[in-house]
Amino acid sequence: MSAPGNTEIKSKRQGRPPIIPDARNRILDDAARLFAQDGYDGTSLGELAASVGVTKAAIYHYFPNKKEIYEAIIVRTLEGLRQHVSQATMQTSGPEEALAGFMTAHADFFEEHYDGFLTMLVGYGGMENVVMIAEAQKLRDDHEQALRQIIADGVAQGAFRPIDIDTTSRAILSMLNWMVRWFKPGKGRRAAAFAQDYCDLMLGGLRS
Amino acid sequence: MSAPGNTEIKSKRQGRPPIIPDARNRILDDAARLFAQDGYDGTSLGELAASVGVTKAAIYHYFPNKKEIYEAIIVRTLEGLRQHVSQATMQTSGPEEALAGFMTAHADFFEEHYDGFLTMLVGYGGMENVVMIAEAQKLRDDHEQALRQIIADGVAQGAFRPIDIDTTSRAILSMLNWMVRWFKPGKGRRAAAFAQDYCDLMLGGLRS
Hints:
Chains A, B: InterPro entries: DNA-bd_HTH_TetR-type_CS, Homeodomain-like_sf, HTH-type_TetR-like_transc_reg, HTH_TetR, KstR2_TetR_C, Tet_transcr_reg_TetR-rel_C_sf. The structure is a homodimer. Chain A has 10 helices and no strands. The first copy, chain A, has helices at residues 2-15, 23-38, 45-52, 56-62, 66-90, 95-112, 114-123, 130-156, 165-178, 191-204. Helices cover 74% and strands 0% of the residues of chain A. Chain A has 2 domains: 1-63, Homeodomain-like (Arc Repressor Mutant, subunit A), CATH 1.10.10; 67-208, Tetracycline Repressor, domain 2 (Orthogonal Bundle), CATH 1.10.357. In chain A, 36% of the residues are buried. The first copy, chain A, is elongated. The longest helix of chain A is centred in the C-terminal third of the chain and has 27 residues, at 130-156. By secondary structure, chain A is mostly helical. Chains A and B meet through helix 9 and helix 10 of A and helix 9 and helix 10 of B.
């Protein structure tokens, strides 16, 4: 009974894909682009493998199936967004600057990671892996909480009116997230410039 | 050669569906509900016919295919939104009231026609029938133009600061449209109450 075992090990070794530098991220990058372009159903693992320049077996070496790739894009995008925005707001002083930092960094990350962001916004509600769902929820909650904290600090410090935190944070995230419906990267103005306009509008209000 | 002709007429008459009161609207109502619930691909014309309580032939009497039903929902929703919002704003006086009227009526229509609204927001970009696309675009443009006019009037009358019309109308429509991602009808507060909060926030701004 030792021969089959040996054969199995040998065939596993033969089937092992070549080492791809930064493979996981490259697979996720190309998958996000294909999902954004052709939709989730319109993208096959064969196309993804061809795009990355590896075999389908190499893809399976990193991800058990297409759905896990999809959910990994969502979590990675939220991680990146969270990190990028918190770095940007850390360097600001005062609630107005912090709000502008939050909004422009959010828009900036959206523009720079457009495909992943699109995949994240489309796919968030349809996630199935409970571990990934928990991770994504935690990241989203942290991101929203950071915004709520900026607003709460502004109110506490007297820089902002005693506005409702829920309404304000929801209004701001709606403006930023709805960009996905009309903004196209690389066509003129940067997303962050639109976000700065929104921020100025929110701060000053409409009333003369 | 007269007999086949007669037979054809007779068979057509036999195949003619019974008259359904307000059939077109009933088909669109049920289709919107099914599309919102199970998605476009997940809804068959057989299910739709069963839901309306008619035969598939009866559906085909009104619409050539599923895609036309989908696009008819989009156009009907935009027509209804346009009509509801323009009626509401006509009864207001002054830019602040007009803005509140626009925003609460938009939210109200969204809540009352939730399934159609969902279908409209999901399907708008994927329309194929050029006549329907032109109708939908005209209605959407008219709706947006009505909002821009309210803002422009407010600036001209000195009620609003000299804010940028594009940024302001885009910000307001983003808040209203993003409701589709978090608001569920019939669970507590009305959509119009949230819209009124947004309006108050927009008018007063954040700065103390």
